[in-house]
Amino acid sequence: MPGRPRSTTERARLEARARRMREAGREMNDIVRATGVAGSTLYRWAAENRWRACDLVAEAEAASEAEPPLPISSTSLFPDESRGPESEGLGHSRSSSPGSRLSPGKRHLEEDAPDPKQAAAEHALGLAMTLARTGRLREAEAAMRLADRFARAAADPPMTPEARAAKAARDKAEEEESLAAARAELEARLDRLAAQLRAEEGAAEEE
Fold first, then answer.
1. By residue range, what is the domain housing residue 166?
2. How many domains is the chain built from?
3. Stated pTM of the model
């Protein structure tokens, strides 16, 4: 027997909660118990509005491919600090900067705020574990790669364009060195194989 029809507002509220739980890596059984919505209905909502596990992985991968925003300099946040001593006479001091007006509690909360890349890595890792438990190994592997990419991005400090160019040059040099070593190893193997074939041919002729 079908249940009571849900209003648009009630469905939106339940679906938003279900999506948040799914994005956090929760399994569908947990979401069914938390929302009271049937699993078939949740799967239908997820398919209609693209928040299935495969959709979330694809969305996170697309977001990770986007160019990271340029870092905000301290002078853009605190312009008074770049004016020099002459600005003191205008009544602009460091005590009037936005950061100094925050209470110690708010400053502490800002300092303890999680890094977005680290949070994304933890989300992708949770999603990978959920996918692996449900047997969707290919999507779980994609989520694991995404989690690793976000974790490495969170561990690496932001680089200036010059630093990025230098790193690219180092990576290219290392790649060329690796290719040269692989080519030398291949040539050595071919030489050994050719020598072995010549030895076998000589032994056959003696017989």
1. 159-207
2. 1
3. 0.35
